[in-house]
Amino acid sequence: MNVVVAEGDDEVVHLEVVGEGDDDGPAAGTAARTVSRDDWPGEVARTEAAAHLDGGHVRWVWDDTSRWYPELLRAGVRVERCHDLRLAHTILRRSTSSASSDLARADPGPWDVAPEVGEGAEEASPSSTPSLFEQWEAPPPRPERPDPLAELALQEAALRSAGDDAGRLRLLIAAESSGALVASELQHDGLPFRVDVHDATLTRMLGPRPARVGQRPALLEALAAQVRDALDVPTLNPDSQPDLLRALRRSGLDVTSTSKWELQRSEHPAVAPLLEYKKLYRLLSANGWAWMDQWVTDGRFRAEWVPGGVVTGRWATRGGGALQLPKGIRSAVRADDGWLLVIADAAQLEPRILAAMSGDDAMVAAGARGDLYAGLVEAGVVDTRAHAKVAMLAALYGATTGQAAMLVPRLARAYPRAVGLVDAAARVGENGGVVSTWLGRSSVPPGEAWHAAQSAASAPDATPDDERRARSRARDWGRFTRNFVVQGTAAEWALCWMAALRRRLASLEGDAGVPRLAFFLHDELIVHTPGAVADDVAAAVRDAGREASRLLFGPGAPEVPLDVVVAEDYGEGGDADALPVIDDE
DNA sequence: AAGCAGCGCGCC
DNA sequence: AAAAGGCGCGCTGCTT
């Protein structure tokens, strides 16, 4: 049963019950209802409960999960399933599988706008002066009230037009929508974060919190003084890149930037304190006391999670830098008393996804015993694990120089199907084409500037510079599409994993409470759980991983090994293969 | 004063 | 002397 949620005005919500659905019969008492805004969470809860009594399911169809679900969560109401029309629209509009549908061919409309920022977002501010672009172009589409029922019908038609690909697209949309529910829940529930532990870390690393904002903590100030001494510039502000670069060069360092990798190659007494200064400065500016005050409330770190925020289908976040939580401060992520964290990581996900989607049985076999990189060594493809990793990542990202130049061809000989798949995706991109993930999320075509560069190079009066630029842009886009198919399919696996886990967690309620997803990071997740059911959660995490592989690749799908740790804090450890590659032979 | 580009670096 | 995909974010210093 679908219930289409449409806004009436500020006071009321229209609910249109639609019997249509994949596996549900017609709904009893199909009807439209209008409920007051205050009553609607209760109405949602009653509808869910009634459906479950019948052994059925409700799918809430709404324009934008982030607009409706937060207020349900605040009222203590959770839903099992939804269909997020905006996210589905983006997928269907771009997918080459539904390119001939009315939905894909229509002019951009209200469903093509970016999501609103934040809960109860502020009204759009009237822009002061229209840009030149806005003056010349037609005005942007009127913010007419989108009609969810009409959009749902368009989406159903688009899915029907996809023929054999419809099943995969339906799975993708279901997973994307489930992800939207998770995203709202993650923001609502938050990640348990101990400010006392974090403050202790900051104090140990930086010195006590300065009394004044903008004042350097003591240890940072001491390092700044060492840098000034070593460079003999008493007034140097090490935070200013231009000033710092000038001072470095005056002191005889042969550097063209102030970046870490370049400094590390220089021998000078200023280098060590400067690198330490930069490290601590980063900690202070990105995750210092101000960050903690702003983003940690009531013992929870809360970020805004943005499903589909990356073109490949990965999530983005807004605020707090949730996807960049440095390893060094993760010990502050601690379970509540009596609770535990279940921390799970899909090992070497992207290479395994590539092996599975390309049907490269040899590469699947190399990963079957656990460590895929070790498997490459055992198979005699490369001589060391480090080389295996460099070769694999080079194939995924399109590196062509350095060690990759030697290693990738060996990989291609051993695994022609896998390497062939990403090479083919790269060629499509180099030619300005569009590629798609396993479930059918398609890449956006290159923009106007890209085509302009290509035309310039093929013009009769093209200079060698034009040609070089065009080739470079083409290769750039090829690396993007090369990676898109794998990164995007890995994101689909992760969405399915999370959706399958979410369903399992709902049935694991213990006396002390319900285990909740608390964090998600591309191929890694954290569940905050009552200690008594932590082992059940760990098992559910593994089961969900197997389900994700089956959903994407069918019954014989290769397994993605999971590192699952039950712990009190997020602490040290984690993925041993985290990027970037350190290429010191 | 506010917006933006580039840099640098954190994460996967 | 850089290199290979996707991001977010804070900072400086420039422009408007």
Automatic annotation (TrEMBL):
What InterPro entries does the database record attribute to this sequence? DNA-dir_DNA_pol_A_palm_dom, DNA/RNA_pol_sf, DNA_polymerase_A
* Catalytic reaction annotation: DNA(n) + a 2'-deoxyribonucleoside 5'-triphosphate = DNA(n+1) + diphosphate
EC number(s) given by UniProt: 2.7.7.7
Task: List the keywords (alphabetical).
Answer: DNA replication, DNA-directed DNA polymerase, Nucleotidyltransferase, Transferase
- Report domain DNA-directed DNA polymerase family A palm positions: 326-533
Q: What class of enzyme is it?
A: transferase
Q: Where is the composition biased (Low complexity)?
A: 113-128, 452-462
Domain of life according to the entry: Bacteria
Name any one Pfam family assigned in the record. Answer: DNA_pol_A
GO process terms (BP): DNA-templated DNA replication; double-strand break repair
Q: Where is this region: Disordered?
A: 97-147, 446-472
GO molecular function per UniProt = DNA binding; DNA-directed DNA polymerase activity
Kindly provide the name given to this protein in its UniProt entry.
DNA-directed DNA polymerase
